[in-house]
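User: what does the whole thing look like in 3D?
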Amino acid sequence: MSDDALVIFTPSGKRGRFALGTPVLTAARQLGVDLDSVCGGRGICSKCQITPGYGEFAKHGVTVAENALSEWNEVEARYDRIRGLKEGRRLGCQAKVMGDVVIDVPPESQVHRQVIRKSATQRDMVMDPATHAYYVEVAEPDMHEPSGDFQRLAEALRDQWQIDGLTAEPAILARLQPILRKGEWKVTVALHRDHHGQPRIIDLWPGFYEGRLYGLAIDLGSTTIAAHLCDLRNGNVLASSGLMNPQIRFGEDLMSRVSYAMMNPGGDKEMTAAVRTALNSLAQSIASEAGIDPTQIVETVFVCNPVMHHLLLGIDPVELGQAPFALATSESLSLPARDLDLSAIHPNARIYILPCIAGHVGADCAAVALSEEPNKSEDMVLIVDVGTNAEILLGNKDRVLACSSPTGPAFEGAQISAGQRAAPGAIERVEIDPATKEPRFKVIGSDLWSTEDGFAAATAQTGITGICGSGIIEAVAEMRMAGLLDAGGLIGSAEQTGTARSVPTGRTHAYVLHDGSAEGGPLISVTQGDIRAIQLAKSALYAGARLLMDELGIEKVDRVVLAGAFGAHISPKHAMVLGMIPDCPLDKVTSAGNAAGTGARIALCSIAARAAIEEEVFRIHKVETAIEPRFQEHFVAANAIPHATAPFPELSAIVTLPDVSFNTSGSGGDGGRRRRRG
Amino acid sequence: MSDDALVIFTPSGKRGRFALGTPVLTAARQLGVDLDSVCGGRGICSKCQITPGYGEFAKHGVTVAENALSEWNEVEARYDRIRGLKEGRRLGCQAKVMGDVVIDVPPESQVHRQVIRKSATQRDMVMDPATHAYYVEVAEPDMHEPSGDFQRLAEALRDQWQIDGLTAEPAILARLQPILRKGEWKVTVALHRDHHGQPRIIDLWPGFYEGRLYGLAIDLGSTTIAAHLCDLRNGNVLASSGLMNPQIRFGEDLMSRVSYAMMNPGGDKEMTAAVRTALNSLAQSIASEAGIDPTQIVETVFVCNPVMHHLLLGIDPVELGQAPFALATSESLSLPARDLDLSAIHPNARIYILPCIAGHVGADCAAVALSEEPNKSEDMVLIVDVGTNAEILLGNKDRVLACSSPTGPAFEGAQISAGQRAAPGAIERVEIDPATKEPRFKVIGSDLWSTEDGFAAATAQTGITGICGSGIIEAVAEMRMAGLLDAGGLIGSAEQTGTARSVPTGRTHAYVLHDGSAEGGPLISVTQGDIRAIQLAKSALYAGARLLMDELGIEKVDRVVLAGAFGAHISPKHAMVLGMIPDCPLDKVTSAGNAAGTGARIALCSIAARAAIEEEVFRIHKVETAIEPRFQEHFVAANAIPHATAPFPELSAIVTLPDVSFNTSGSGGDGGRRRRRG
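Assistant: Here's the predicted 3D structure for the full assembly of 1356 residues, as structure tokens:
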């Protein structure tokens, strides 16, 4: 009989020979097999459960004898008695290799499960969150070799988990002695360890702590704050929640908030206090939704644009409102939560804020880069994160460029006559029959088109209240396709278009989408002003993308990714009819959903990802739109619908746009020249 | 003509050849000459002033021509115009070497002046405080290469001062942008840099900051809190101040405070709050005494015993009251001052607390070791820091041992019938005529003996109020020398001693030192109880020293250092008559004054010293008196006056003690058996 044995792990297929008597957990670790353990192999945590297979394994060329593992031992028996062990399962730290064996690691014993699921792709991600719980057994004090309890705990973490340089605040030191004694020198320590500084104790519990640690990934937008509550062991999202950014009352867009800070002494502090209060209430509500205590939240990751970033940190954003748009700090930040007054979560919780790319290209754009990885793309990808400001990334594995473009809030339904947020009752889809010029639409909250039976009943509750961002984009594009709008963006009169839905409003016209006035509801129409607002927004977006394309010297991109909560709802065809994005095969235009939020979750789950994006941000080449004369040229040239700066072979293959021109009155012709940033 | 020249610096004598055109400051730096500079050689700070010598220097073998240095330049002229430059002085950063030259560095241009002056020895110390101001010029923001202002500041510190890894808190980041712009991209940054963690910004000012940075060195004792306010540029002490530890109301000695914490839930928090409040008011008063703003205090170093250490940190000291006397933490601590609620000083000030040696041997003992350096001593030195607890160090460069001994507060005048703190009116010196048995004494506040003319007038203001620690030690020793007391510690009756000053008090006797009752003052006598209290204290002290001598296997020490504020006032002869310390040549018994406070000042001025003591503390061998049976044996044997455990050849050479015995009644014989720790 040999004194070693072959061990094969499934599903990984990893294999190796080990001395008889080697615990399965040890073998797994030596082979790099993904087998969980929290207690360090002491038979306490039960995370390392495995299922040995017995009999003939032709595929692996091995036969496993009944006694291939050591016998069921006392630790396993006790564990089974108290908590129950599934049929056929063993504890990997207790079962020892006694002969050739095939061992299956069930999914719940794997740490490194894929956690980030996106509509288009799934990403396998290794969980390595900054905050993690460690169980240790600490040496008792010895009068003859006096050392502090803290020093013996540090020694235990060094010996048992190879963690060096432990630190703790006085408030933690004050709790250490009673906890060590209550746990009889066994303790579970929640440690924060990232690439910025030494490991520090966040919390500690006597004995083995069964509880979970949670983190928040927060996308702090100018308009909305979106949060995901994640389990830090496996990355699972327990709850997602959002609320309006209360800073809206100080100004709708970024520039108005910067102006508010400039005009009102202490205005920046008001806005800082407002957003911090909102973050505390968001933490409380998301925790209560998930049924956990908010103090179980030990980490929070933020992504946000530079103005939100500064206001969150308590920094006056005034410099961001004027050239050269200098950030107070651009690199990532690792802070105690109390520095940002986040008192609702764990008192020792830590904050991580992704790095900003430039004065107008924030941590939210960095998060999109982390999520969408243009730097790993083989083909040339254009990523636009559509919000109040659009962040634009263009590149491939060779080089990535970034800029920000001041689209304004029109794409979000603001500054639109009948505009509203994407909420039940809002028109989100629009179709216009090119022959009859009659519209049909869908509202959020119902799957029926307005022309279908039962639509009235289905929307009775919410009513038809307005039109949201995706609705206005579709409406404008459909109006253009139906010949209600010319390439210059003018709405034709009833005579010119042949439909009574085109009604005069002063010197211009509007197209009536829905008239609810008979039922006491609103009249929802698309006005010439709405068209101008959308033209401004889409010109800014396109001009930004085009500027980056110029910089790379390319005329076309291989694919387009629409990101942003709103990006998820934009129809690629309509976006292209509008000329929001360059011409591209329609099946190459995909949505990444809230890519910034996804990036925040990735950073929450992995310090390696944090290090990677910090490094990548240095490599991204930033282009400042505000001072680039070509941006203005592209912006003006992009005013037409679709823009006139490049041909649309891909779009032309599927849509023929009517060759109409309503420019008889000359009105509205200056619409494309106004622009704001914000 | 050669293209390099000989440069000789005085007083160091360092010399080297440098290319013509080399600035004097550069030459000094390359030779390691101690020439100050704060602005990095930009002609702003004027710290690098030097005095060139001209003519024949036979000693150095060089003749210095009038044009040996470059001509007086615009920067020097401007400096002289605005602030005035002393006759013959040049700015080292402006004057360039143009020929062989001898350059004197005046004392005020040297950084590394000796700063710690002690009565016995002077110590040269290199100033390298953790907090230091740096002047830098920061690159302006560039839209095309966007980076945060903070990142450009960090780069400037890296380039101009070789300081890497800068960090700052959000509150500092919030102030950065306006300050950089106000100073036109020139800024002075106060940085905290120690061996625990990354450099962090404490404060910053636009342009070149003329102000000073200060630090506090605090000896936090059970009874008194003593503080020195130091200038962090040169280590000078601007003011020294002290106050009573307000924790006294919770218990006079350490053990009573530990008991208070045990008996009263939240009692530890009360004591923590009390000491922190006192520290804030001490910081305020010492700053006002020195005429500075307390927020200019950017660092504080603490030394204290373990119970004070834990209570300062907000840690319940209960474990220190029972075996195995486990410290919550033993290593040094580097903390923000706000963690200890020290709100009176700079809001970003830092705290450094020296390491503890063991559960009974605290950071105060570590500070004594740092100040007295037994580990560098060639001869065998015994260092006793006499306070409520005595800390004892014994050793030489080969090995150092430490222990703590529970002397109790008798040496400080507490638990003595007429005892009081060392304050005006207290008897501090005593002599008793062996023939007449009549005493004479001095009181604090007057230099006259009580038998001298004018004594009554000199003490009229203060009165004669009691007897302090040094007074009671001298009184007891003098009583023994005068035959009023036998070796067992019994006071003889009037018949036995032949003086009416021996008066009966119950079953024992007391010796009347001073009867002020006629003038309405107190009767000050030494009672049998007082003798017992002193016997307990000195037995504990001697037993501790003896235990360490046993451990090293030695019968005698080469020298004795008495430390502690009180140690400064003990007369070596009287200490030896009492048997407080082992027999030793009298001229080898010296006082180190408040060595713990000196150690705190050294740590305040030098991070190298902090690193050194942290390392040394690991090497010091700790002996726990509380569990050592031999300590009890020594303690009992040391009860006699002087102790009976070792001969006193050195003492016998100068004093003959009367061979009396008053032990007729048997009373008081158990006095030596009681003992407490605290």
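In plain terms: Chain A is about 25% helix and 25% strand. Chain A touches chain B through 50 residues (CB under 8 Å).
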